[in-house]
């Protein structure tokens, strides 16, 4: 049977491909250090696991959960927004649970895009924005994130005829893969643009709690007018090392949240309630575990950035996320550099072009590996690359 046209061009998910490369290299006996994966290596904090372990035995949780999330879970999300951002959310109408934010990001396209419509997606960017869009037979218009613009999209560069066809605008700060951050002035611009063209903003805030050196990201929903035009996707995955648990949320504009909940209630049946109760514990218990994690990532970031800069890179310290985004040395493409460091150094980096054409010329490395292995990776790169001269 022939596959549907919409999935014929669908590549294997970027990280599934990288997993294959790791397996191949390991089979050859190479001691591979992977700096390629955006999945925290640290375990979920103990108090969250304990809560879940207890809740697993509660028979109330063994039945189908509420489609849109337990009221207590949605209230916990609202309370987090109130305490952290001073944003008031109606837990009944402005919050919906997600099976990880990736799920909601993919399904929001089903809510608003008809064939031929346009979604504006960042390039480089998390692949799910454009893949969710193309699965609805709609067009992803790629907004370049350029280094000279601080990796923020330039809305004035989007042709008006494209903006007129656009229904969704995906944004993601702190940003994967570039580690860039956005301020209120940028979100104000985005909101004004969305109002001018009647576009829904979908802000992906997966890295909102992973920040360094006294910098603290704001929420898109803090900015005046945000709730008129958009929603924010939140995730427990990176904040609490819970990628395997599959839980997140969308919060913001009530009509958009209702539409997303309606689509979801017809195709999935929500999140295991024991996981929701664990997530409530994560959000409302003291946040020391998150502070500890930020310290660990700060130390790793310093090893990586100082190490690369000692070799000739000129990277500024990142303010947030678990990534470092850097130019490949002269003479390499993203792919040839990723291949070179795998073959010569046994180190996996993610080629920047995997995130879109404007990622070409860059590579991404993740802070999801212990300090000793990070130092080893840097030492191997230093031994094989020597001093790198950027013009
Ligand atoms: C990791 C990540 C997510 C989180 O996905 P979950 O489905 O919540 O685990 C969302 N967006 C970006 C950009 C990410 O890197």
Helical coverage, percent range:
40-55%
- Quote the beta fraction: 5-15%
Number of discrete domains: 2
Helical segment count: 14
Mean pLDDT: 95
Question: How many beta-strand elements?
Answer: 12
Low-confidence parts: none
**Strands side by side in the biggest sheet:** 2-8-7-6-5-3-4
Q: Which structural class do the helices and strands define?
A: alpha/beta
What small molecules are bound in this structure? Answer: pyridoxal-5'-phosphate
Q: Tell me the series of helices and strands, N- to C-terminal.
A: HHEHHEHEHEHEHEHEEHHHEHEEEH
What is the assigned CATH homologous superfamily of the largest domain? Type I PLP-dependent aspartate aminotransferase-like (Major domain)
Q: Which CATH architecture of the largest domain is right?
A: 3-Layer(aba) Sandwich
CATH topology of the largest domain: Aspartate Aminotransferase, domain 2
Look at the structure and give the CATH class of the largest domain.
Alpha Beta
Largest sheet: 7 strands, mixed
Shape: globular
Q: Supply Rg.
A: 21 Å
Report the end-to-end length measured between terminal Cα atoms: 52 Å
């Amino acid at each position: 049977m022939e596959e549907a046209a919409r999935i014929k061009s669908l590549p294997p998910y970027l990280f599934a491909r990288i997993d294959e490369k790791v397996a191949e290299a390991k089979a050859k006996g190479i001691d591979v250090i992977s700096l390629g994966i955006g999945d925290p290596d640290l375990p979920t904090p103990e108090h969250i696991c304990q809560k879940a372990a207890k809740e697993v035995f509660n028979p109330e949780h063994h039945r189908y959960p509420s489609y849109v999330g337990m009221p207590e879970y949605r209230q916990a999300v609202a309370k987090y927004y109130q305490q952290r951002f001073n944003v008031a959310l109606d837990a009944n109408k402005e919050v919906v649970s997600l099976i990880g934010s990736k799920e909601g990001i993919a399904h929001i396209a089903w809510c608003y895009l008809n064939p031929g419509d346009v979604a504006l997606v960042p390039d480089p960017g998390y692949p799910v924005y454009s893949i969710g869009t193309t699965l609805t037979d709609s067009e992803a218009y790629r907004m370049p994130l350029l280094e000279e613009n601080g990796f923020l999209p330039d809305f004035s560069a989007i042709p008006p005829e494209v903006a007129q066809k656009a229904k969704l605008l995906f944004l993601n700060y702190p940003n994967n893969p570039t580690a860039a951050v956005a301020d209120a002035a940028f979100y104000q611009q985005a909101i004004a643009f969305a109002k001018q063209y009647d576009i829904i903003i979908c802000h992906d805030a997966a890295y909102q709690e992973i920040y360094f050196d006294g910098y603290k990201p704001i929420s898109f929903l803090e900015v005046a007018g945000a709730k008129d035009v958009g929603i924010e996707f939140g995730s427990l995955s990176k904040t609490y090392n819970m990628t395997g648990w599959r839980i997140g949320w969308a919060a913001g504009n009530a009509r958009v949240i209702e539409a997303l909940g309606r689509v979801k209630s017809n195709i999935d049946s929500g999140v295991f309630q024991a996981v929701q109760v664990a997530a409530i514990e994560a959000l409302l218990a003291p946040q020391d575990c998150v502070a500890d994690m930020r310290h660990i990532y700060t130390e790793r970031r310093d090893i990586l950035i100082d190490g690369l800069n000692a070799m000739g890179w000129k990277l500024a310290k990142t303010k947030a996320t678990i990534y470092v985004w850097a130019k490949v040395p002269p003479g390499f493409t993203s792919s040839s550099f990723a291949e070179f460091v795998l073959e010569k150094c046994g180190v996996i980096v993610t080629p920047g072009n995997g995130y879109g054409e404007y990622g070409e010329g860059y590579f991404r490395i993740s802070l999801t590996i212990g300090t000793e292995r990070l130092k080893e990776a840097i030492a191997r790169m230093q031994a094989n690359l020597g001093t790198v001269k950027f013009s």
